[in-house]
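=== RUN LOG ===
request id: a7f3
mode: sequence -> structure
chains: 1
length: 605
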Amino acid sequence: MKPVLVEVTARIRERSAATRAPYLARIDRLAQRPPGAERMGCANVAHAFAALPGSDKFRVVAEKSPHIGVVTAYNDMLSAHQPYESYPAVIRDEARRLGATVQVAGGVPAMCDGVTQGLPGMELSLFSRDTIAMATAIALTHDVFDAALLLGVCDKIVPGLLIGALHFGHLPCVFIPAGPMSTGLSNNDKAKVREQAAQGLVGRDQLLQAESAAYHGAGTCTFYGTANSNQMLLEAMGLHVPGSAFVHPHAELREALTRQAVATVLGITQRGARYTPIGRLVDERVIVNAMVALLATGGSTNHLIHWVAVARAAGILIDWTDFAELSAGVPLLARVYPNGSADVNQFQAAGGPGFVLRELLDSGCLHPDVAAVDSAGLRAHTQTPALEEGRLRWSSLPAASGDSGIVRTAAEPFSASGGLRLLQGNLGRAVIKTSAVPEDRHIVEAPARVFETQEALQQAFKAGELDRDFVAVVRFQGPHANGMPELHKLTPPLAVLQGKGFRVALVTDGRMSGASGKVPAAIHASPEALAGGPLARVRDGDIIRVDAVAGTLQALVDAEEWAAREPATLQAAQAEVNAHDLGRELFGGMRRNVRSAEEGAITWL
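=== RESULT ===
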């Protein structure tokens, strides 16, 4: 294995010793209890299984058959989750065929960031992750299950399900994806129309037509944002049936993979041949493997927040320095929009996750000797599934990429590094994703233009005030201030200005979408402005240097003047807006208690 992989893993293990050991002890204690139907009082058992068919009641109570809990994020507001409507029936049918029983233990909320981008609902988005984790815990706390199947795909949903499941770490768990929608209008063409709309060159009718041609059916959006990064990471962690991430929801293969998930989870229960609880499976090596897979594919920056929280749920402590050091030693093997022109369907056709994982394993960039839900371990995830005469079969991928413009071997990567940099300086710590940014934009030095809402930046753009070199400082966008919404609506105007030849960059304590791309953006700046972070000291006209080569983020202001400056405060009127309407009142406690972005924006510690 590469030395950096060994070194970072060892450091994480040492750092986590005081939290991981008690976590594992709790798992072991819970695993030693009798099964739920034997452990509980008669009234509890009667309530638990009251609605089951008589034959299933007999199986689970008298025959002591394995009992599976399903936690589903089904709703038909999310195109990616709409296919889950039919999954419980398929899962029940397969479980009965295999001598087991199933109950849908609970549903979790799942919101669509695409619907809420730039709107008040986006201020609930990040906190929905921990809400989902709590809802998962409520579902599983009925405590009658031998294993769990987790149905979720999109941005906060998978991290939330995973955090919740890890708090029931004694249970074996398998995630079941639903797959991407078919290819529609290309992501590049969609981006062009958005930029034209930002300039007033096309109207709402043309913009809506383009957006509807891009987002047009069941399945995940086809760009490589947070939702599809989730699926890549779950493959790398061994938590899927191998190769199931990017199969279309309506493909015949999809149902076969869903049925296989039932057999897989039954094989790793305490009654199966190979007990593999999720809390044991997700160890330091598996967390590092997920981080490497993210970096090697140019995945979503949102996971620099989410996977810190996921790791913490398993008693494992990681930080942005770990990501940055791994990024320096991990090759970039994939270019999928926004880091290239391909969508995830083209990525899958060119080799997909299996090709990337094989190359990473063979080049010493992943821990090979880790547990996985499949008995063959992580190596099983380097193969591709297919139906042959109605039965699932897996086969090895070709040695060569199906399209070297989309995926490449570790011997000939797109880049020797993963394209993620940690930036540090008198503006705090932030991260920048450089894999989609032109090399001549990796350093931007220009006067600051300070905004306290993304709407203010958009208004300044429309008024023609931004046709010049500048660094947009958008502050009071952190988790304490307003829930840390994605600022994806800023991408089109900034991209237009960059296209005109101006040197522009973004510095913010907020998030960008998992689809952020060609404009250099120093994001997640910590500490955030509302918590006394240095972005509150920036003034219009300060020279800001964003340097992704040296890894620095500086306000080029005299040190004495900088130290003497009174930090700006969030205007009372804006704070009032952030706190009220459309459900925001309900999340006030989360805003007050949330930890920093680098600590995973966790609300449950």
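=== NOTES ===
The domain at 3-32+65-182+217-396 is CATH 3.40.50.2300 (Rossmann fold).
The longest strand covers residues 443-451.
=== END ===
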